[in-house]
């Protein structure tokens, strides 16, 4: 269990879209398709040349899989969405092809990237509940390389509607597998709960990034999140791990921020990112302009911090 005792002491007991334009047509998200070997070529008609070609195909390196990261913390208002948008935009600026999946019925990651929920043909709700391919729900953002699978209020019903659904925990995983070849990074913005939507995110992801607010009650509920990650790891997704903990809303003027940061670093060691996100008004203003901080106020402390974080977490694309 994770909690704070005695002041701020931390206690813990733990497919391809060849030639396709995104629906708004702003940025091409095409990547060269891996040539698949037709199964017929292994039949009786197979020539020596066919066989040589097939061998070459088989030796081709496997297409790189995207890093799929769930941004999760069931505590509300801790900076999940701000981190998803800002880190996603900064990673896109580095040249990574980034998809943000908005898994929160509040739809803040969508509106924060300038998406109007009224203008959508399909959203993540239709993807999860009506088997609409994820690629049909993907919208381009105003940032090159940055795309979003938006959420609308309909998603609020999904927690209940998913209950009787077939393979209800792995719907998002299946959906993402259809577009995996088109992205280097998939960031999933989780809702502030540990229900079926978050379980879908944890089942689809390989990594969990946890933003932690540098404030007094910041660690409340963290134990529960870590237990859920363990549960999903044991039952649904053995690859899953908490990869990054990000200290956000750090206020250098207060002792408390430094104390919380110190305790979190002491407990979680190298999982805690070196880059710390400061509390700044510009970060809270950016969503109302439908822009990430990297374009709204690119030279401010918040933008610089998220660019540093993107370099730390993703490095340069190879
Ligand atoms: N570093 C920061 N400095 C100042 N304000 C911030 C910072 N990060 C986030 N905020 C503001 O704090 C509020 C909560 O942030 P955000 O929406 O990112 O949290 P969340 O964890 O996604 O919330 P929810 O749980 O409701 O989804 C927002 O108004 C946001 O603009
Ligand atoms: Mg949010």
Quick overview:
This protein is of the alpha/beta class and 318 residues long. Helix content is 34%, strand content 14%.
Features:
alpha/beta, seven-stranded mixed beta sheet, binds adenosine-5'-triphosphate, Rossmann fold, disordered N terminus, two-stranded antiparallel ribbon, binds magnesium ion
In words, what does this structure look like?
With 318 residues, the protein is α/β, with parallel strands linked by helices. It has a single domain, classed as Rossmann fold, CATH 3.40.50. The protein is 34% helix and 14% strand. The protein has 12 helices and 9 strands. The protein has helices at residues 48-59, 80-93, 108-111, 124-129, 158-161, 171-177, 196-204, 222-235, 255-268, 281-285, 293-296, 301-314, and strands at 2-5, 9-12, 67-71, 98-102, 139-140, 146-149, 185-189, 207-213, 241-248. The strands form 2 sheets. The protein has a 7-stranded mixed β-sheet, with helices on both faces. The protein has a two-stranded antiparallel ribbon with strand order 1-2. β1 (2-5) and β2 (9-12) form a beta hairpin. The longest helix is centred in the first third of the chain and has 14 residues, at 80-93. It is globular. Residues 1-47 have low confidence and may be disordered. The structure holds adenosine-5'-triphosphate and magnesium ion. Adenosine-5'-triphosphate (ATP) binds at residues 76-82, 104, 106, 108, 192, 248-249, 277, 279-280, 283-284, 287.
